[in-house]
């Protein structure tokens, strides 16, 4: 069972910064070093930093609520953050989110190759295509391109980066001081990529990364996201409301991976788990209740407005939710409305509820949480979990101190690192040079068929 | 007097990797950590990492010589490299080169703001516009845009990044856990930039950097480069063949700075100094001779081909240099040819000489080198030096161990850090919010006049 930690390079969630035990050092290196050490002491496979390329805007197209409540801002650049964490550790894998929409493949390939060398093979890249218009507007666009266009660019982006990582064979460097011969030019190749989105001649200015390709992480839940993940991802990060939907998702992903000629056992599926640990179930519920109490209803409503484009602060906060047509995506507001009616919640109460929502809640004693995790593993829903913290560093400390010993006792997780690279930790083999052909090639065949 | 260190994130110069005392760890974090500690122990103001976004190509448009001789490749991404160095130090300033030609201002502004926060105000950005066609070809272009176009983009790039750094006032964050108020939205502003090269709405997703703006470094020697530096640069890095040309350059730069309404005392001019230290002048010359002996003539000719577009390997290496018309830029081959004739050097000998060339050579005893530096300071040619090493880490160790004590004895450099930020070390004040207006504004007035 694999453990990853989900860590914002800024305040956590809607309200994590406000927790009495939350550190406020998210602009300081020491904060990230402290968390990295907790995770490495607990033998986590990796820490994972999400990202967003804008201060979130919600209704009225304003960033005021995000700044006022600290929801989604600030966000430091994840790359320097994981580099600082790497410098403080020896084994922990480190993954940063970088958008294919607003970067150049040459730069991105070089950055991750550099990081993989400097960390001895511990780098991971979480590939996203961005999802806010506010992000697009920081890069010369009026609005985000549609999903098809974004994934089309992402596919080509991955092909280019993989080819650049392969542009030096594993045997270029000689460094023979005697003869003065530094490297073998015949083991370095231009890539001469000329595609719909990118023209890149290559080669990369950095030797092939220790891991061949850095570990590729992906979290797309849509059909195009799943296809993309099936082609390129080593680790798939997801979130599910139930064990059943998690099992269905895992089955679907593994089928898509196999259909592309890749080994389904070489993909790790990590559902989100926000753990709140107590001495027993009652104590854990109390702790969770204290966390929920921190949520200002307006902060939750602002987060909801950001997600579903509904501004309920215009209504009486102590009244019921209004019937609204055509808002949000995928019927998300409809679900919220039905939930509010069923539970007889006011707008204020829904704001509190929404702001306190975390992904894959596991509230209980260490035994309860280990039981749940074990059940998900046995059902084939997960290869491990992406642990999310209500507040940091303390909630990671709780998990490491309370749940990790129980998982070790059951023999579910390691008590020491056996390998050196992130691929080693995850049990993933090192990609062969040229493996991009198989991946990108299967996409091309599909388009031709 | 200010000390900066010039450090490739790869092999040094044409032949530095081949020196018997050179470390070969340029892909490893430990190599950079070791150098960072040498520099911090010697109280350097900063370390500076140059960059190039391609494997250099020379005649025949091939990267073969660069790989075979290790000239200009590999080049790690400087940003993770300086982040690793920052994590190992507490005072040393860290500057990375990033091109305005092939990055996005939002990303760049956020990366440096992040680094400035994580290092407590020790970040510097060396602004370049790139200079090789091989770089352009990794980013969808056939060839490098001309100098005017490159500087035009760079001007707008700097305006956008400065405005993004100012998009949060210094007083946004409240973080009042009691009331749940995180920040003051009225202290955060969109920038709504709409220019010839960039449309960026803002605000940045990161608070104003500790230094206001990270330290801006620039090395352009052309008139447009000098104007750019006069508007934006805090530190100017240059290279001179003689004290006279250095004095002229410094006088010209300070006049340009003053003409733009900036204080000429708030710009630091750091000429390159490649120091080879011996117990006396004769010992130093012997050491320099040993270094020169390492240069394979073909490696020097390949470097020359890269710089002046002349491939002399097609001729008899033991014959004289051919008379060639219209090669290289600014008559550079003509100078080389005249030098070869005057000194009666063969092509092979010129290859050796060219490959061993380093910038601002200072070969001598610690007293000799300190004398030269002092003379340059007194003549107004320099505010300090950009120390280059023939090989690393050893040559930095030689400088730190032999020359630094002599400079300290003379009271020319500090023996401890008094401030905390890179601006403190350099004696530069923190820019006020809105200072971009003065800088970019003067450019606009100039265009209108």
TrEMBL record, chains A, B:
GO molecular function: monooxygenase activity; oxidoreductase activity, acting on paired donors, with incorporation or reduction of molecular oxygen
Domain Luciferase-like residues, every copy: 27-381
Region span, Disordered: 423-449
Entry-linked Gene3D superfamilies: Luciferase-like domain (3.20.20.30)
Domain of life of the source: Bacteria
A Pfam family matched in the record: Bac_luciferase
Keyword annotations: Flavoprotein, FMN, Monooxygenase, Oxidoreductase
Amino acids binding FMN: 51, 97, 151, 222
Family: Belongs to the NtaA/SnaA/DszA monooxygenase family.
Name of the protein in question: Putative FMNH2-dependent monooxygenase
Organism of provenance: Gordonia soli NBRC 108243
Source taxonomy: Bacteria, Bacillati, Actinomycetota, Actinomycetes, Mycobacteriales
């Amino acid at each position: 069972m694999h453990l990853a930690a989900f860590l914002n390079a800024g305040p956590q969630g809607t309200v994590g910064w406000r927790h009495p035990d939350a550190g406020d050092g998210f602009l300081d290196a020491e904060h990230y070093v402290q968390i990295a050490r907790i995770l490495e002491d607990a033998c986590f496979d990796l820490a994972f930093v999400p990202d967003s390329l804008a201060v979130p805007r919600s209704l009225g197209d304003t960033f005021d609520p995000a700044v006022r409540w600290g929801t989604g801002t600030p966000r430091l650049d994840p790359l320097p953050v994981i580099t600082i964490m790497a410098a403080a550790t020896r084994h922990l894998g480190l993954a940063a989110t970088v958008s294919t929409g607003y970067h150049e493949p040459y730069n991105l390939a070089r950055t991750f190759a550099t990081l993989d060398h400097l960390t001895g093979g511990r780098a991971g890249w979480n590939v996203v295509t961005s999802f806010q218009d506010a992000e697009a507007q920081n890069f010369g666009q009026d609005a985000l391109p549609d999903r098809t266009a974004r994934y089309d660019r992402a596919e080509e982006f991955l092909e280019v980066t993989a080819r650049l990582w392969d542009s030096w064979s594993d045997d270029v460097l000689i460094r023979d001081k005697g003869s003065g011969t530094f490297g073998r030019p015949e083991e370095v190749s231009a890539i001469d990529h000329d595609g719909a989105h990118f023209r890149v001649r290559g080669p990369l200015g950095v030797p092939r990364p220790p891991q061949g390709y850095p570990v590729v992480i992906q979290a797309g839940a849509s059909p195009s996201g799943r296809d993309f993940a099936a082609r390129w991802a080593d680790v798939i990060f997801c979130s599910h409301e139930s064990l059943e939907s998690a099992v269905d998702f895992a089955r679907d992903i593994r089928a898509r991976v196999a259909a592309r000629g890749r080994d389904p056992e070489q993909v790790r599926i990590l559902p989100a788990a926000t753990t709140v640990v107590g001495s027993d179930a009652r104590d854990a519920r109390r702790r969770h209740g204290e966390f929920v109490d921190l949520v200002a209803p307006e902060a939750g409503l602002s987060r909801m407005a950001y997600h579903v484009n509904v501004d309920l602060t215009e209504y009486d906060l102590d009244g019921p939710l209004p019937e609204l047509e055509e808002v949000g995506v995928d019927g998300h507001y409809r679900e919220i409305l039905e939930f509010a009616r069923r539970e007889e919640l006011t707008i204020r109460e829904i704001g509190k509820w929404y702001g306190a929502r975390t992904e894959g809640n596991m509230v209980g004693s260490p035994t309860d949480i280990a039981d749940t995790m074990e059940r998900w593993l046995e059902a084939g829903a997960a290869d491990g979990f992406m642990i999310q913290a209500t507040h940091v560093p303390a909630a990671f400390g709780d998990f490491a101190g309370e749940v990790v010993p129980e998982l070790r006792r059951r023999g579910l997780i390691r008590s020491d690192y056996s390998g050196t690279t992130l691929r080693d930790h995850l049990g993933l083999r090192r990609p062969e040079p040229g493996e991009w052909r198989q991946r990108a090639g299967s996409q091309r065949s599909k388009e031709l068929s």
